[in-house]
Design a protein that fits this description.
CATH architecture of the largest domain: 2-Layer Sandwich
Number of helices: 12
CATH superfamily of the largest domain: Chloramphenicol acetyltransferase-like domain
Number of strands: 20
Number of domains: 3
Mean pLDDT: 80
Radius of gyration: 24 Å
CATH class of the largest domain: Alpha Beta
Structural class: alpha+beta
Shape: globular
Low-confidence stretches: 84-142, 191-197
Largest sheet: 7 strands, mixed
C-alpha cells in the first residue's frame, strides 16, 4: 500500500505570497533527498525548494504563477518504494539525522524541506564568513552559537548562520534572528547600507510639457540595486585609481591553453586570470581584503578570499561570489565564473551565492568601457576593480615601437580605510602581476 507524504513550504521568516516561477518535477518522477522541486522568487532572491525525502511524485498541488507561503502543501510523494534508500541517506549523516528528529517524528504525515542549498558547502562557508564584518578571526572548526533546532531551521531556508548576529544571551542565534535575516534577503533590505542618512527626494518634473514621453517601470532588481548603489555612493568616500597593464604575454598564455581548456570543457577567459590576480594582490595588501567595523573604530581583516564578479542580466546587475578563490586553479575558477553567470542570467542565484564577498571585479571588456570608469564599491567591501576593454597600442620597448595589448583598469577604494599611497601600491602591484603571468601561477 502506498505511503504518501505531503511536502510543505517551510517557514520563510514571515514572508508571504512568494511567486512560484518554476516547477522542476512532474507526476511520476523519482526524486531523491535534495532533488529541487520548485523555484520561488521574491523581490531580490530566488530559492529552490528541495525534496526532504526520496520517492515518487504522485501529485503536484501548485503551478507556475501561484503564490505560496509557509505551510502550503506543494506536492505528494510516495515513499514506499524508497524507504531503504531514505534510511541509508539518513544514517550516512548522523548529525543531520539528529537535528531532523527534533522537529520531525518518524511517522509524520507532512514533511518540510530541510535545505535550500547544498549542505555540503556549509563546513567551508560557515566558519569563514560572518555577519558582513563583525568577526575578526575564525577557525575552520568554529560554529555559530545556535541550537540544533535553529541550525536545521537555517538549513531549511538556505541561510549561512555565520552571517547572522544573534540577539539571544551571549549573542546566541535565535529562530527569530534567522527569520529576520531571511526576510531582509527576500525583501532586498539588506542591500542598503544602513547609515541613518536619508537621501534628498528628486523634485517632480512634468516632462510631458516638453514633448511626448513614456514611463517604463524599472525591474525590481534595478529598483533595489539602485537603492544600494545610491547608499554606497553617498556614504562611502570613494577614491578611484586609474592604470593600465601590458597583458600581451598573459593573452598569449591564455590562447596557448585554449585547446586544453576546451578538452576539459572549460571556457578560459581573461576574467579567470583577473580573479587569480586579485587574490595575489589581496594577500600582499590585506587591508583591501577587509571591512570597516560597525562602529567605525576598527578594520576587520578577512583570512578568506571570496571574489565577487559583476554579471549583467536582462533585469539588472548581480554579483555572485566565487568562494575560496585562493584554493582554486584557473580552470576551476573559469568553470565557477560560467556556472554563476548562467545562474544569474536564469534568475537562479540563491542568497548564499551572493553572500560573503571580499572584493568585487566589474568588467566591461565585452562591450568596451573606454579608458576607464569609476565602479561603485559593493559595501561592506572596501574596494572594487573595474576593467575596460584591452586594445592594441604602440609601446616603446627595446628602443622601438611594438604593438602591445594594453588593459585599462580602475580601482575604487574606501578612503576611510585606504589612503592614496596604499591605493597606488595596489594598482602598481596588480600591474606587476598582470604583466608577468608567473606571479599569478605561483
Amino acid at each position: 500500500m502506498p505511503n504518501t507524504q505531503e511536502i510543505l513550504i517551510p517557514d520563510i521568516g514571515d514572508f508571504e505570497n512568494i511567486d512560484v516561477i518554476d516547477v522542476l518535477v512532474k507526476v511520476g518522477d523519482s526524486v531523491n533527498i535534495e532533488t529541487p522541486l520548485l523555484a520561488l522568487e521574491s523581490d531580490k532572491a530566488t530559492m529552490e525548494i528541495p525534496s526532504p525525502i526520496a520517492g515518487i511524485i504522485t501529485e503536484i498541488k501548485i503551478k507556475i504563477g501561484d503564490k505560496v507561503s509557509q505551510g502550503i502543501a506543494i506536492m505528494c510523494v510516495d515513499t514506499e518504494q524508497s524507504n531503504t534508500e531514505q534510511e541509508s541517506a539518513e544514517t550516512s549523516d548522523p548529525k543531520q539525522n539528529d537535528t531532523t528528529n527534533e522537529t520531525a517524528p518518524p511517522h509524520t504525515a507532512t514533511v518540510e524541506p530541510p535545505a535550500t542549498t547544498d549542505t555540503t558547502t556549509e563546513p567551508s562557508q560557515e566558519p569563514k564568513t560572518n555577519q558582513q564584518v563583525q568577526t575578526v578571526t575564525t577557525s575552520p572548526t568554529e560554529k555559530a552559537h545556535a541550537s540544533p533546532t535553529v541550525r536545521r531551521f537555517a538549513r531549511e531556508l538556505g541561510v549561512d548562520l555565520s552571517l547572522i548576529h544573534g540577539s539571544g544571551p551571549k549573542d546566541r542565534i535565535l529562530k527569530q534572528d534567522v527569520k529576520q535575516f531571511t526576510k531582509s534577503i527576500l525583501s532586498g533590505d539588506n542591500l542598503a547600507n544602513t547609515t541613518g542618512i536619508t537621501p534628498p527626494k528628486t523634485p517632480p518634473v512634468d516632462f510631458s510639457k516638453f514633448g511626448e514621453t513614456e514611463l517604463k517601470p524599472l525591474s525590481r532588481l534595478k529598483q533595489l540595486g539602485g537603492k544600494a548603489l545610491h547608499s554606497n555612493w553617498i556614504t562611502i568616500p570613494h577614491v578611484t585609481q586609474f592604470d593600465t597593464a601590458d597583458i600581451t604575454e598573459l593573452e598569449d598564455f591564455r590562447k596557448s591553453k585554449l585547446n586544453s581548456a576546451k578538452t576539459e570543457g572549460v571556457k578560459l577567459t581573461l576574467m579567470a586570470f583577473l580573479v587569480k590576480a586579485a587574490v595575489v594582490a589581496l594577500k600582499e595588501l590585506p587591508e583591501f581584503n577587509a571591512s570597516l567595523s560597525p562602529d567605525g573604530m576598527g578594520l576587520v581583516v578577512k583570512k578568506y578570499f571570496h571574489i565577487g564578479i559583476a554579471v549583467n542580466t536582462e533585469n539588472g546587475l548581480l554579483v555572485p561570489i566565487i568562494k575560496d578563490a585562493d584554493t582554486k586553479g584557473l580552470f576551476d575558477i573559469a568553470n565557477e565564473i560560467i556556472r554563476l553567470s548562467e545562474k544569474a542570467k536564469k534568475g537562479q542565484l540563491t542568497p548564499t551565492d551572493m553572500q560573503g564577498g571580499c572584493f568585487t571585479i566589474s568588467s566591461l571588456g565585452s562591450v568596451g568601457g573606454g579608458k576607464g570608469f569609476t565602479p561603485i564599491i559593493n559595501a561592506p567591501e572596501v574596494a572594487i576593480l573595474g576593467v575596460s576593454r584591452a586594445t592594441i597600442q604602440p609601446v616603446y620597448k627595446d628602443e622601438k615601437l611594438l604593438p602591445r595589448l594594453i588593459l585599462p583598469y580602475s580601482l575604487s577604494y574606501d578612503h576611510r580605510v585606504i589612503d592614496g599611497v596604499a591605493g597606488a601600491q595596489f594598482a602598481k602591484f596588480l600591474n606587476t602581476i598582470l604583466v608577468d603571468i608567473r606571479h599569478i601561477l605561483l
